[in-house]
Amino acid sequence: MKSTKILERILIAIPTMLIIAILIFVLMRIMPGDPVDKMMGKGGNINIEEVQALEREFHLDLPISAQLKIFLSGIFHGDLGMSFQERRPVWELIAERIPPTLELALCALLFSLIISIPIGIISAVKQNSLIDRLGMAFAFLGISTPAFWLGIVLIIIFSVKLSIFPVYGRIAYVYKPIHITGMYVLDSILSGNWPALKDSIMHLVLPSVSLGAALAAVTTRILRSSMLEVLRADYVTLARTKGLSEYMVITKHALRNALIPTVTVVGLQVGMLLGGNMIIETIFGWPGLGRLVVTSIFNRDFPVVQGAVMFYALIYVAANLIVDIIYTYLNPKISL
Amino acid sequence: MKMKKILMLLLVTVLLFGLVMNVIAASKDTLVVGLLQGVISLDPANHRNRTSETVIRNMFDGLVTRGPDMKIVPEIAESWEWLNDKTCEFKIRKGITFHNGEALTAEDVEFTFNRIIKEGGMDGESSPRKGLLGPLESIEAVDDYTVLFKLSEPWTVLLKMLPHQQIVPKDYLEEVGTEEFRKHPIGAGPFKFVEGKLNERIVMERFEEYYGGSPDLPPVGIAPMKTVIFEVLPESSTRIAALLSGECDIVQNVSTTDAPLIEKNSNTVVKYAKGTRAYNLEMNLSKPPFDNINVRKAMNYAFDGNLLIEMVYGGKGNFFAGPLFPYEEMFDSSLKQYEYNPELAKVLLKEAGYPDGLSIVLDTETDLKEVAEITAGMLSEAGINCTVRLWEWGVLKPLLLKGERNLLFNYWGSSILDPVGYVDAKFLTNGRGNYSKYSNPEVDSLIAKGAISVDPVERKEIYKKMQRFIYADYFYIGWSVNSLTGCSADLINWEPIPDSRINLHDADFK
Asked: How far apart are the CA of B321 and the nearest CA of chain A, in angstroms?
């Protein structure tokens, strides 16, 4: 039953994605700005024939309806088209950017959960204590600190002044893990390349902290408030009167229920993290999806933007589905 | 207690690791460059982008190249001769090999240029570099080491434009195809491609059989560096941090505000090169208020270009008199900058019917915001009150070409420092970058003549006349800014060049 529900949800996603594809296709073309003109840059020596040849090649000389037809028939054949600027298949460009983005997103998520879950629980259990106040102060700071500022400050302290972590990139050139998944941490573990593992982790620390700080702050606050609510519920009092240890009451009874709103928030944030973070990727020279999309929008590289937006839609649909599945695990009364 | 020990151990490991990292960064047969943006393609025919060219030209050589003084010198070509004003003969240097060991001959040169000028020349795709070759009609390999360039009309800047095209191997390309070539490019330059992701890092290794490069740019021979790495670092503060921490040896595009930070550090220096980008304030002549010459004059007297360069760029720049760069060959040195005179500007505005001053929107892009605001502040002293409006270029440009905006602050590149490619875009009626909507039949005809004149003296006269017309029409205020490159203090035999290419052939460490 459950698997048919999941399949149903996936099938519903297909028309959604198609509508998104058509919308973004039309929007990109309504937007002012000409891809060939962008390609030529602000400089002279442009030949009208070369501009026309490029327009013909990119089908920009055709009416929008004809271009849309080419695009849609491409999609149904599994072809997202070629990037105007790089002249490489769009899927290849996107696929290349997924592992770095995924790696960074997972590390940022891991960092934020490691920080937020204990602080959230302790703050709620020991409400108004010093730990609670410090925890909330940290959360407030995390929410209000812009990621780019945090990133630069971390670079100045830990890279330039203390020389502990590298400034940029994913791995030093001297270490080359074998390409398996494209995620260097995982690849180094799989291939048993320990120096590469160390180096890629060192490269991940600062961007993960910068990216994960805000998420950690949000999660801490949500978890604390839902824990507070749950701790006052009757069934928790009942559990206590049954004589269960405080540890059992909190972990088995309270936390599990308090996690439902937290999972919702984290799930949505993960969707955002997987889309790539333009700012963090730019600061740390991280070659992820966010940078690809923003650059492509400015360059009016239509096929890349179209492909990437469809990929985003897919991620959001998947993230929501996973959140729903986790709900059913946390509270079996909820069904898909 | 146990916890404390574990923490100490962790800290020590982390610190030791940091030290190891530093030692790696300090190995001196490797040079790391921090690039401003990703590379679009490693195929010399497949981009219109300076950063891509910078990387490509370390792997590929051209027929000719430029030294830091912008003079054209032979590279793969040994010599050249104009047979008539439409035909140029190049003699190819003997003994040059590509990275795969194949000899470079006239056939490769012919193939390279055909790939660019023919529609669909790159396995069905058209090159975006055709316009850089102007009226080049055909290329013909006469024998193994002689090539004829045939133009459809005379074109004086052919040689100045040739450093921007690099020679590719015909046999290899025909064998593997364009797509594979872009993944594993092979050239005849000082470094060969090892690996690379265009938006992350490109690694090259010294080519041991390199012919040595241009004899006019000593030292000649194989490169001192064993490995060169180009790292893509779009954020300027990251580039600076990477230079200061020793992870990069050269970083592109340092801003004047960051320069003191680099100068203060004993391990790093800033190097300067004259700019080839003209920044300009352009007034739309097709509608009020700038259709009135007195308003345009007032703008010129209200703008203190020298102060702006001093304040914003630490004096590292040049305020123009007229439209051309004061350090380019065709510049008319008899032209003088309009003096800063806000009182005169006010009088002129009054005469034009704006006794209480003029309010206007100054259009620009986000990256030029600060300078635009300073400019606006300066103009307000003379009663020209500008509101700065920031645009995304793709949105603004169509409006400019339709003549719908009034005042623009922007820039235009002229990497060869020649009027060709610059004046025909900015001042020719309906030129590609003519945002002032300037239209003057005499200027149009001078621009056309200048492009085909082959006599340098006559050419200069033509451009002098053109400059005087533009100067007297008061619609264009220009300046250039030196490009700043941050370098390791140990770096020797490397100087930045105005066309912003980073040639690492001779670069070495003390």
From this structure: 21
CB contacts < 8 A, A to B, total 168
Tokens representing A232?
């006052």
Return d(Cα B289, Cα B348) in angstroms, integer: 12
Does A169 contact B200 at a Cβ distance shorter than 8 Å? yes
B251: tokens are 């970083």
Beta strand residue intervals within A217-313, DSSP E: none
Residue B434 contacts A where some CB pair is shorter than 8 Å? no
Residue A64: CB atoms within 10 A of its CB come to 13
Residue B457 sits at the chain A interface (C-beta within 8 Å) = no
Q: Mind telling me how many Å the CA of A155 is from chain B's nearest CA? A: 7
Closest Cβ–Cβ partner in B125, B233, B395 for A57: B125
- In the numeric block, the tokens 């602000």 are attached to A42
A89 in contact with B, Cβ within 8 Å: no
Inter-CA distances, A322 with A220, A266, B377, B404, B408, Å: 21, 11, 55, 51, 50
Cα–Cα nearest to B198, from B62, B61, B65, B46? B46
Closest CA to A74 of A91, A87, A86, A62: A91
Tokens standing for B254? 């340092």
State whether residue A30 sits within 8 Å of chain B by CB.
no
Of A32, A57, A159, the CB nearest to B126: A57
B6 touches chain A (CB under 8 A): no
Condensed to tens digits (0 to 9), the pLDDT of residues B102-141 reads: 999 999 999 999 999 998 899 998 999 998 998 999 999 9
Question: Over the stretch A109-121, which tens digit does the pLDDT of each residue have?
Answer: 999 999 999 998 8
The torsion angles phi and psi of B375, rounded to 5 degrees, stand at -60, -45
Model pTM?
0.86
Nearest-angstrom CA–CA distance, A198 and A178 = 15
Question: Across the interface, do B413 and A43 touch by the CB < 8 Å criterion?
Answer: yes
C-alpha dist (Å) from residue A266 to A84, A102, A223, B268: 36, 15, 11, 44
CA B68, B72, B78: angle at the middle one, nearest 5? 125
First-to-last alpha carbon distance for chain A, in angstroms, is 10
